[in-house]
Amino acid sequence: MFTPILLATVARTVEWSPEIGLIMIICNIAAIAFGKSTIQNPHTGPAAPSSNLVGGLSLGALVGSLCFGHILGTGTILGLSYLGAI
Fold first, then answer.
1. Angle ∠(4,10,11) on CA atoms, nearest 5
2. What's the rounded Cα separation, in Å, for the pair 19 and 37?
3. Residues 67, 37: Cα–Cα separation, whole Å
């Protein structure tokens, strides 16, 4: 009974392409910049590998920023696909 309702609400997915990858990379870079400027203690904890490439963020700050970047990227990709831009 509920199956047609659930299937009707599932978002349309987009196949992977270099354009999708570029959008995700841009969103992750934006999230790292946002995290670097807003995290109160970005250097607390173990250092991330190649921490000089990500602005000296600790491992926890980097993982948190990248999680936010993936959420931001997923929303951006789904929104752009809904609008028909990609």
1. 150
2. 27
3. 16
